[in-house]
Each structure stands twice: as C-alpha cells, then as structure tokens.
Amino acid sequence: MSESSSDISDDIVWHEHSVDRALREKVLGQRGCVVWFTGLSGCGKSTVANALDVMLNRQGRATTLLDGDNVRHGLCAPPAVLASEHGEEFSQRFGLGFGAVDREENIRRIGSVAALMAGAGLITLTAFVSPYRKDRDRVRAIVNETGGDDFIEVFVDTPLEICESRDPKGLYKKARAGEIKNFTGISDPYESPESPEIRLDGGAGRSVVEMATEVAEYLKQHNRI
Ligand SMILES: Nc1ncnc2c1ncn2[C@@H]1O[C@H](COP(=O)(O)OS(=O)(=O)O)[C@@H](OP(=O)(O)O)[C@H]1O
Ligand SMILES: Nc1ncnc2c1ncn2[C@@H]1O[C@H](COP(=O)(O)OP(=O)(O)O)[C@@H](O)[C@H]1O
C-alpha cells in the first residue's frame, strides 16, 4: 500500500541552515534575484539572456543561466530520453513534453531551482517560453516569498512573424506542416505578461546588446548590481 501524499508531507520538516541567505549574499556582495525571460520560441530570450550573462560576469557578478533547451536535456527531459535508463513507467510519470500540464510542471521545477539559486545569492537568469501567466505568477510568488521584489519578469515581445522568419531550428516550419503539435504561437497559446518589470520590443530592430543593456540598466537602477 502506498502512503498518501498528505501523510508524507506531515513528516517533512523544513531545516534551517547555519549559513543563511544573508551570509551567502554577504560573501558575494550582492542580493540574489531571478531575471525571468519569457516569450515565443525564436523571440531572442536565450541570446539576450546570454549577452546579459556575459556583461554581468565581466562586471564580477555571480550569475547563472538556465535555458529551456538545456534544462529539457536533464532536469525536465522528455519521456523518450528517460525510457532507456529508467524504463517505461518512470518515463511516462516524470518525462515532460509540451502539453499544458507538462509545461506547468516544467515551470514549477525550474521555478523551484531558480528560487534556490537566488537564495544562494546568484543573479539567476532564465530563458523559457513559459507561455502560461498562472505558471509564471506562481514562480513570482515563490521567489518573492522571502520578502523582496526578487522576481524580475522580462517579456521579449517579438512579433510571431519575426520569430517565424528567423526559425533557427526549423521548428516553425515543422509546426506549420503539422509535424510538431502544441507549438506555441501556432497551435498552442502564449499568454503575454500583463505587467512585466521589463518589456523588450523585439520588433523594433534593436540589437541584442541594446536589449541586454536595457535589462542591465534596470538592475542598476533597482540596486541589483
Ligand atoms: N511544442 C513546442 N512549443 C514550444 N517550444 C517547443 C516545442 N517543441 C519543441 N520546442 C523547443 O523547446 C523549447 C521550449 O522549451 P521550454 O522549456 O522553454 O518550454 S515551456 O516553457 O515549457 O513552454 C523551445 O526553445 P526556444 O526556441 O529557445 O524557446 C523550442 O526550441
Ligand atoms: N535582437 C535581435 N536582433 C536580431 N536577431 C536576433 C535578436 N535576438 C535574437 N536574434 C536571433 O534570433 C534567433 C532566435 O534567438 P534565440 O535567442 O535562440 O530565441 P529564443 O531563445 O527565444 O528561442 C537567433 O538566431 C538569434 O541570433
């Protein structure tokens, strides 16, 4: 007989550590936060986050970058990747695809990891489509639970036509041909942020460096760097 989840949760007690967040941040000389890039596939999330990461690293800031494609190779791998090592039942339970519930779990896992990293004092950059407002808002609530406005949502607002014309991985072409189901912007929804901390206009012909600089300026103005 398996234990019910409520029975288990009663037995899990939060452990306070001697080296707390404040001590970790004192060593790093900065406050941790999560800079959450969201937008359509091909909008420029990874490229801008990467450029920002380089800028901050050069300034001596402790950062980390979690990126959709990379995380889906490990923490949030699809069933097909898990099956050979872990078997069919495991891969079906824990492997993630692109249905709404799978995306919800993807963002929940990443949000938890990002919150832990911010709690370790890192400027944590993330680049995920994260199409559902509710999922992003849940991460915001978890990250801001510790009292600060540590969740900074960056909407990379690039029109679908531009994303589709870039199509660096040929995914839009496949989605249009019906070879990929639930493709964001084509056959799956994208819920734009209503009041992101930063909106980058990806349709205005601005360079990657200009956009990354805008985010860096925001961090500076808000005493993050
Ligand atoms: N159906 C579908 N919809 C959207 N994107 C798809 C899909 N299938 C594969 N891909 C590729 O996976 C990347 C998105 O993964 P994410 O983890 O960011 O997605 S999500 O946040 O859970 O929605 C996304 O990466 P980016 O292009 O960097 O955004 C795509 O390359
Ligand atoms: N501001 C920009 N101007 C021109 N091209 C861009 C810009 N930002 C990104 N790109 C290009 O668009 C493509 C998709 O960018 P990428 O960062 O991979 O998007 P995402 O991570 O949102 O899927 C890449 O080929 C990248 O070089």
TrEMBL record:
<keyword id="KW-0808">Transferase</keyword>
<dbReference type="InterPro" id="IPR002891">
    <property type="entry name" value="APS"/>
</dbReference>
<dbReference type="InterPro" id="IPR050512">
    <property type="entry name" value="Sulf_AdTrans/APS_kinase"/>
</dbReference>
<feature type="binding site">
    <location>
        <begin position="39"/>
        <end position="46"/>
    </location>
    <ligand>
        <name>ATP</name>
    </ligand>
</feature>
<dbReference type="Pfam" id="PF01583">
    <property type="entry name" value="APS_kinase"/>
</dbReference>
<protein>
    <recommendedName>
        <fullName>Adenylyl-sulfate kinase</fullName>
        <ecNumber>2.7.1.25</ecNumber>
    </recommendedName>
</protein>
<keyword id="KW-0472">Membrane</keyword>
<feature type="transmembrane region" description="Helical">
    <location>
        <begin position="110"/>
        <end position="130"/>
    </location>
</feature>
<keyword id="KW-1133">Transmembrane helix</keyword>
<feature type="active site" description="Phosphoserine intermediate">
    <location>
        <position position="130"/>
    </location>
</feature>
<feature type="domain" description="APS kinase">
    <location>
        <begin position="31"/>
        <end position="201"/>
    </location>
</feature>
<keyword id="KW-0812">Transmembrane</keyword>
<dbReference type="InterPro" id="IPR027417">
    <property type="entry name" value="P-loop_NTPase"/>
</dbReference>
<comment type="function">
    <text>Catalyzes the synthesis of activated sulfate.</text>
</comment>
<dbReference type="InterPro" id="IPR059117">
    <property type="entry name" value="APS_kinase_dom"/>
</dbReference>
<keyword id="KW-0597">Phosphoprotein</keyword>
<keyword id="KW-0067">ATP-binding</keyword>
<keyword id="KW-0547">Nucleotide-binding</keyword>
<comment type="pathway">
    <text>Sulfur metabolism; hydrogen sulfide biosynthesis; sulfite from sulfate: step 2/3.</text>
</comment>
<keyword id="KW-0418">Kinase</keyword>
<comment type="similarity">
    <text>Belongs to the APS kinase family.</text>
</comment>
<dbReference type="GO" id="GO:0004020">
    <property type="term" value="F:adenylylsulfate kinase activity"/>
</dbReference>
